[in-house]
Structure formats: C-alpha cells, structure tokens
Design a protein that fits this description.
NAD(P)_OxRdtase_dom_sf, NADP_OxRdtase_dom, NADP-dependent oxidoreductase domain protein, alpha/beta, 14 helices, plasmid, AKR2_Oxidoreductase, TIM Barrel, 40% helix
Length: 326
C-alpha cells in the first residue's frame, strides 16, 4: 500500500490557470502551448488532476470565474468515478467570467458580491459539482465590496452552513489581514459563520501571516494561495529587476540542492498554521516539481536568508495588479 507523505496531504491543486485561456501567471501562454481549444484544455486539466491524485493530493479548488474549471473538474470526477468525499472539492462565488474564451479580452471577470449572485452562482456550481462540493467561498472578500456587511449574504451563508456545506472566504489585496480579522467577528446565533479562509502568503508577501495564525488558532481552516506569487517565484525571470531581487532565492535553492519553485513552496508548507497550500500548476511537470517541496529541509537559517525578499504589501499588490493576462 502506498503511503502518502504528510506534506503531500497538505497540498491542494488550484484550477485558476487550467480552466480558462488567459491568466496572470507568468508564462501561462507558454504553459498551455497556446492551445486554447476547450477539449484540449479539458484533457490538460484531467492530466494535471490525474498527476495530483496519483501523488496523493486530495484537495481541489475551483471558482465560477475560472472559465470552465468546474466543468473540467466535474468531467474528471465522473470519468475517474471519484465518489463524493474522496476528494475535498472547494469552489467560490462572487466573480463572473466574461472573457468569452479570449486571452485578449478587455475584461476577464466582473465582481458581484450581492446575495443574488450568491444564489445564482451556487446553483450553477451545484449543477456541475453536486454532492462533491464541500466548501463554498466568497471570492476575494474586501471592505470595498461591502460583502461582510451585507446581512442578506451573511444570513444566506449561515443557512448554507446549517445544511452541512462549509462556507469560507478568500482574500486579496494589501488589507487581507484586516478583512480576515473582521470576518473572525461575524457570527449568527453565537456561531462563527466562516469555516475557512484562503489568502495569499509567499516569500514576497507575508503581511497576513499573524492574522492567519490567529484564524487557525480560532479553529478556521487556513488555505494558502499564490505560494509562488503567480510564477514570480517559480524559476528564471525575463524581468532583470525581478531576477536581481530573487538572487537570494536562487542561491539558497542551489545551496540546498532544490529547485527554486520547490524551495518557495516549502516556505509555505513550513508554516505551522497552514492547513492546505495550493499549487497553481498548469502542467503535470510543474505539479511534480512543486511537490518536491516536501523533501526540502526548511530551517530557521533558510528563513532568515530569504527575509530580504519580503516586500511592502502595497508594492506587492501594485506589481501583481500589473501582471499581464497571457
């Protein structure tokens, strides 16, 4: 019987880069070989899911705005005869995909955190994923959208939670920590509404760490996304300024005999409060490289050597916002 290493059990697969032709991951077009025909992309998604499942990964994250990600996941679950509960399936609501299967679309997604959007998109997700759906999350909750102060939305999420469906929120932007602390306070009938939080943490952007640790201590499941900073921590860079910034990462990877992406991924896996760390791999080879993180010997010394990479949140999110869809 194959024994899955504990580290692998904490790895999840995010489908943001697999369900639609365009995404902001560096070299995304190269990863997809610019073959955007839906059936080809479905086969690619199935291949990555197969590689993940074979390695022991049992957490998959999708969203209504990830193009056809939910459809591709649903067809894989059916084709592989995966029973509900054998894979933990999470999805998200709050953005609508609007790119029309084009990489050069003017707008790729539109945000709508209204109660009407919640119920419409939940019905769409359930029609695809059915009883496989285990967690439904607000996609990129922010103060600006007002979603955490919308009583209709919060009451609706509380009702969903009462049916046994876990509810959570994902975060984005320089105010991740503050939004999370607000979410921790939200209750209905004395019960905290949110079961989980998904947030960005990586060697460039560590600002939400203390709040995520508090959430974990309070009993929320913590899911780390963008551990490789949308490809900026995944290997050779064409941007000279970014390459210079990441010199320390390359040097430490060489010292440890690890690949750059595995070392950066290992940093997230080393967080004691991170329950799941998502890989955003677009190919089986990328996934297998990410999974080598479980063999990296992360230490306080390595952490200290790489502290110089940390950016101010505002700078990080400004640069992320400028990444081109490709």
């Amino acid at each position: 019987m194959n024994v899955v290493p504990p580290g692998i059990r904490r790895v999840g697969l995010g489908l943001a880069a697999l369900g639609r032709p365009g995404y902001i991951t560096i070299a995304h077009a190269h990863d997809l070989t610019r073959d955007y025909e839906p059936s080809a992309m479905e086969r690619r998604t199935h291949a990555v899911l197969d590689a993940a499942y074979a390695a022991g990964v049992r957490y998959v994250d999708a969203a209504r705005s990830y193009g056809r990600a939910e459809d591709f996941l649903a067809s894989w679950l059916a084709a592989r005869r995966i029973t509900p509960g054998a894979v933990f399936v999470a999805s998200k609501w709050g953005y609508t995909y609007t790119a029309g299967w084009r990489v050069d679309a003017e707008r790729h997604e539109v945000k709508d955190h209204s109660a009407a959007a919640l119920w419409r998109q939940l019905a769409e997700t359930k029609s695809r994923l059915g009883s496989h759906l285990a967690l439904y999350q607000i996609h990129s909750a922010t103060f600006e959208s007002g979603v955490l102060d919308d009583a209709a939305v919060i009451d609706g999420l509380a009702r969903l939670k009462a049916t046994g469906l876990r509810v959570g929120l994902t975060l984005s932007g320089a105010s991740q920590a503050e939004v999370l602390r607000r979410a921790l306070e939200i209750t209905r009938d004395g019960v905290r509404v949110f079961d989980s939080v998904q947030a960005t943490w990586n060697l460039l952007e560590r600002s939400a760490g203390a709040a995520l640790e508090d959430a974990h201590r309070a009993g929320m499941r913590v899911i780390v996304k963008e551990a490789l900073a949308n490809g900026r921590l995944a290997g050779p860079q064409t941007d000279p300024a970014l390459a210079a910034r990441l010199t320390a990462l390359g040097a430490e990877a060489a010292r440890l005999g690890a690949t750059v992406d595995a070392l950066a991924f290992a940093a997230a896996l080393a967080l004691p409060w991170a329950d799941v760390v998502l890989s955003g791999a677009a190919t089986p080879e990328q996934l297998r490289s990410n999974l080598r993180a479980v063999d990296v010997s992360w230490s306080a010394e390595t952490d200290a050597r790489l502290r110089s990479l940390t950016m101010e949140p505002e700078e990080y999110w400004r640069e992320r916002g400028a990444l081109p869809w490709n």
